[in-house]
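Section 3.1 - Work completed
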Amino acid sequence: MGAGFFIFSGVWALAMLAVFIKAIRLSYRIEARSEGLRNTLGVPQKAMMIHTAFNWKVARDPETQALRRRMLFLLALNLAGFVLLWGALWMTGSVADLPNGAA
């Protein structure tokens, strides 16, 4: 594998990380707008992405639902990025070169 592959992989990883961080930030915004998910303890907590993704205890107003749809799009974009990278590796035959014979 050439140096171009490693540069591409690094840029791809940064892009996927940025998209996932944006989705987490949206999840926190959705939680702040939803009474059932609001953090009332004052201590930091994990993002409740499962709740926001599946619309559990999420406010039903149009603005919050628009934020939720945007978060779902970002999560789907992240998943698509992983699938496309795997497909590219599979098509080039590089999947067989992975350690421990993965895939």
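Second construct:
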Amino acid sequence: MRYAINTFHDPLKRPTAELLMRPPILHRENDGRVSELGIFYSPKQIRTAAYLEEYKKVDEFFSSVGIETQRKPTDERIY
């Protein structure tokens, strides 16, 4: 998973990243999404816009390979 997250930006390595992230890599809840037990964005509140954008790109990559997370990256305080 770490390799996929670190290399999905590279067009030459993206096919391998996508292959590594294919289901059933993570447990899914009844609603089909991956809970925070599987993917946890830390910190929960991302205050710096540049970092938030990077987290959102990772989340978009997850979505593109069929992994929907229950919690999305945000700059709002959520508990």
